[in-house]
Amino acid sequence: MTLPRPVRPSRPVFRLPRPHRVDLLIAAAGLAGGLVLWSFGLFVTEDHVIGQRWATLIPLTVMAATEALRRAAPPTALLVGALAIAGDQLTNGNLATVLMFTDVVYASVVYGTPALARRVPYATGLLTVAVTVVFLVRWQNAVALLVGVLTGMVSFLPAVTGAIVRNHRDAAEAARLRAEQTALLAEMDRTQAVVAERARMARELHDVVANHLSAIAIHATAALSLDDPGTTRRSLAVIRENGVAGLAEMRRLIGILRDSGADAGPVAVPRLAGLDALIAQARANGGPGGLVFVLDDARETADGLPAPVELAAYRIVQESLTNAVKHAAPGEVRVVLGSPAGVLSVSVTSPYGERPGPTAPGSGAGLVGMRERAALLGGVFEAGAVTDGGGRRLWRVRAELPVGASDEERT
Length: 411
Description:
Blueprint: H1 21-39, H2 57-68, H3 74-88, H4 95-111, H5 114-139, H6 142-225, H7 229-258, H8 275-286, E1 291-297, H9 307-327, E2 331-338, E3 343-351, H10 365-376, E4 380-387, E5 393-402
Helix pairs in contact: 1-2, 1-4, 2-3, 2-4, 3-4, 4-5, 4-6, 5-6, 6-7, 6-9, 6-10, 8-9, 9-10
């Protein structure tokens, strides 16, 4: 049995980054220009340490190579370029080498790391001051100042220019990111507004139309199941009444949706003053099933309630009556309104138990809508089976709506 050989970790291979195409063109143009100057014998100075004419080509070629890496590897390009410009001072010198070095310094600040972009201007500034001081001490004439100015133009000025350009680019990028974030937040707000509006319209459609459709379903079932001409005639009358009313409500809602622009007129909002008509309609729908509807308005005053609070209370009562018509056992359905300190209380109780005769199916969306209406106003909502003092089981819907809700909570 042979044991597997341990896998040795591979050594990292150093690879130069791939030069940018534009940088290659800049390097080729700089090298070509330097070769033209060299062929015509145009040098920077005649004072030199290395007298061979071909020696000028070595710093020129090295500097052209650093130009190819100005964007791909700025620190490497700056270091090699500094050595090349130092070597160029030992020869007759080439103007193309000096110009390419200024571009390498500029590119190291613009494309380098943030740390390199901060350090290069300081380093070149100190270099300019040091060269000026050294030549002033050595020559003690105005030529030293000229050398210092030339040194600053070759090193410090490109670094400062690169820092200015980089700051402008960073500011532009930050502004672009802020604009994208603003657009993203605006899109999120728009999406949330659309979702909220859809939920509001879903609640309105359910509360308005479900009441009529439930009555239609119950009375249609009764007309089909009972072979009694009188019962059939009364059921058809209720079906027609609810069909006409439901169609009118649908047309009203469609008109609101179509005319919801700036020129839309005011829309009538249901208020608690219309509960008497709502109770009367519930009697017509649920009376044949043995339901008795009672309204107990125990409020101290019926004035001064905000429209959103009255609308929410009206819809909660309307949906509760619809559920009673669909599911409640024969007995009394009582609607109680109260006004404790700072809130409007709404309570609807109905007999809980097996119901004889036809019923209509429920989806649970009504309870969700009532809970949402109360939550939007910062109120409390609860629904469930309870037992009264006589031991009878009731289904109770109870809501407490703050009458002092802010405008944002009422939207």
